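re the bet — no i am not wrong, look at it urself. input seq straight from the record:
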Amino acid sequence: MHPETLFDVPASAVTVPTLPAGPANPGRTLHQYGETDRWSYLGTHQPSWLERPEFGGSMVVPLCVSHRRLTARRALPRAATPWMLDSGGFTELSLYGEWTVPPAQYATAVRRYADEIGELERAAIQDWMCEPQILAKTRQSVYDHQSRTVASYLNLMWRDDELPWMPVLQGWTLDDYLRCVDMYAAMGIDLTVEPLVGLGSVCRRQSTKKAVRIVERLHGLGLRLHGFGFKVTGLREVHHLLYSSDSLAWSFNARHHAPLPGCTHKTCSNCPRYALAWRNRLLASLSDWHQDTAVPLLHLAA
């Protein structure tokens, strides 16, 4: 496949054989948390949480916020805690069957978030998920989606290689994911030296034997994996193989339970107290990790 059909960059830029290996600048260096916190990003619909003091300070609860929640804001919060940016790709492809946000526009937005919000650790690329319902919407193959995912990483790196772009692996079967690793390698990208590699199209089947085998094999290759949208059941299976994960499952859980004592809202689906309690319970439920809980433990949905 000719480079010019894959990338929204000049052909001469695509032919560069390698990208810088390992952390090449401050934007490509992960903060080092304690063992209990290093991988647990708390998802939120509310960008204002980035500046809330209960997520920063000595507690250091890293957050995950979607580009779709930030892009229309004229004023941005100033982060009190490290965070990662979700590209909003699943919603984008579910609604439109393609990316309607041009790479240049996305890169410009992420640069603004890095400069104005600060504390940005990772920014997901504009990857292409491979769930059957997404393929049906785009009318493309797994291979097409993988090609476009690799192209997105190269395109965004070419536009601003000082931003903390996180490459993402896409596929459906184990062989698909191994092929995606090879596709990055063919473009000069050694994923084993990347600070973090996103694992896509797994969250909706995360506790199945096939998904566990995929995580085990990719971890065995030496990849530092980030699990998108991992829930409790999936984390209990593979948390020891993931460097990090993010989850908004607490919000879904809150919609099906009464508000916490003292809360006046109808549900706690956007409640910081509930979110922190859920996260503490999650960490305490994983055999290899231990954390003191400063707020009440709540029932967890699988």
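see?? The two ends are 43 Å apart (CA to CA). told u. also The chain has eleven helices and nine strands. so pay up
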